[in-house]
Amino acid sequence: MSEHRQPGPSDRPPTVADVLALPVLAGGEPRVVTGEEHLDRPVRWVHVTELTDPASFLKGGELVLTTGMPLPDDPAGVRRYVDELAAVGAAALVIELVRRYHRPPEALVRACRARGLPLVTLARDVNFLEVTQVVHTLIVGHQADAIRRTQRVHEAFTALTLRGAGPEEVLRAAAEMSGRTVVLENLVHLALVCEPPGAPVRDALADWERRSRTTPATDRAGVSGPEGWLTAPVEYRGERWGRVVMLPGALAGRTFGPQDATVLERTAMALTIARLTHATPWERTAHRNALRDLVERRHRSPADARARVSALGLPTEHARFVSVLADLPPGPDTGAVETRLCEELTATGARALVGLLSSTRLGVLLALRPSRPWREAVEQVSRTALAAVPGATVSAGAPAEDLADAARSFREAARVAEATEPGRPLPAGRSFHERSDIGLRRLLYALRDDLRVQEYAERRLGPLLDHDARHGTDLVATLRGYLEAAGNKTVAARSAGLSRETVYQRLRTIERLLGSDLESGEQRTELHVALHAVDALRAPSNTRPGGGTDEFFPGPGS
Predict the structure, then answer these.
(1) How far is the CA of 341 from the CAs of 222, 383, 391, 447, 454, in angstroms?
(2) What percent of the chain has a predicted confidence (pLDDT) above 70?
(3) Does the N-terminal or the C-terminal CB of the chain have fewer CB atoms within 10 Å?
(4) 446-493 tens-digit pLDDT
(5) Which domains, from first to last, does the chain contain?
């Protein structure tokens, strides 16, 4: 190792242990007599002294080198000497056992041990001037590196701010720069954004609210709380919005350094600017991202998903989950609808995540007590959504007994929405659609874009549709009436207001055009399905959020 290479991590100043490991000192055979637990103290400077009161020339953080010549002879004088060094914050005392002493004085050992001051002895002669030069070069080099690193941090956050980065991108940058987990929380200690650099979310967010409440707030970047979190407030003109937290995590053995504080302070500043320039509240963005992560199964594990949702205030134990989708017609302020729905649900005591999944699709994840009827809770959500946007279509998935199955519930709700054409009537006393509502007609409506359905409808009924178009007839209506009468020609004739002979004649024409036997129950079923498919193809398209209902719910083949 080069004598000028810093032996410790580059993001902190050299410690007493680092300096003792340098070859220029290692040749003196250093031995730590006291204060071994404090060898991680940073060394700010090296001070060579032969004075009886060196503390008056120190500012703290110095490694004091002495031959031992100026040490007082009496124990009281030795204690005073050590007390003054400890009071000023000296990093360590290094004494050479070559000239005056060959073993450390017992009074010196006792005094250093009592004050927790590292005492290091050198068994061999060491050139103190060379030690000073090497360590000072190391310290100055570190300071220059620190200035360059700080400049890079400022430049990175300035770039993020100028391009309008949101809180997720800001925290991601902070986590990458620091190598630590960074969390943004609001005033009620809900974790809104969590960026763990390669670590599981559950490790960072487990029991978040309780842990956060035991960590006092600080007025500026500082370490507090039983876990030693580094925190900084996010505020503007005295109005505090929350705080950003940097967790020790797996790096708990390495104390936070000045660069960590710089990163966190710039993170808080960038979040303040993002809050002022982005209209969407942090809570809304957090709910949206949490819902999308659940829907798209973007969590690393079910435990991560539970930790993330729990940190947002949603119970994950002893609860079941129901997904609700509200497809909104074009026009209304979807952000305002989202906010209103969330506020009204909160006012009723409902525990839910509410967020836009696309430009016209609003998602809700309800956390319910297992004993509560889920349709009652969904009805409450549906009526609230319809009161805000009367033209909305609300669909629900079946309950999920575990959060890990919430994606299935959302997928089911999406399939219900996909099978619901605008204006579809609802059962009495219910304002939302669910899976049990989907019959043959709605199934075919959901599949209307499938080329196989289109080909089937055309192959089975195309000749009849063509004939009606060319000749101005309405044989399709006759076929429909016949099939809806379950093959009873008399009932079909009466319903159409036609004579039986006319109906018989038309049915014979239909059989000839389609090459079908209308007396066959199987062929009548096939034609009935084809008629429903034609109806679905002619029905007005449902408003599909973001250009398609599958934007956040990809099908099995995607």
Answers:
(1) 38, 10, 15, 31, 39
(2) 92
(3) C
(4) 777 888 888 888 888 889 899 889 989 889 888 988 888 888 888 888
(5) 16-139 (3.40.1390.20), 164-278 (3.30.450.40), 312-445 (3.30.70.270), 449-538 (1.10.10.2840)
pLDDT tens track for 514-529: 888 888 888 888 888 8
What residue type is 468 in one-letter code? D
Which is nearest to 14 in space by CA: 46, 37, 36?
Answer: 46
What does the block give as tokens for 251?
């790096």
How far apart, in Å, do the first and last CA atoms of the chain sit? 55
Q: Are 297 and 315 in contact (CB under 8 A)?
A: no
* pLDDT per residue as tens digits for the range 327-366: 988 877 888 888 888 888 888 888 999 999 988 899 999 9
Beta-carbon contacts of residue 532 (< 8 Å; ≥ 6 apart): 440, 441, 444
H-helix or E-strand spanning residue 464: helix 451-471
Q: Are 177 and 277 in contact (CB under 8 A)?
A: no
Q: What is the pLDDT of residue 399?
A: 93
Phi, then psi, of 401 in degrees rounded to 5: -80, -15
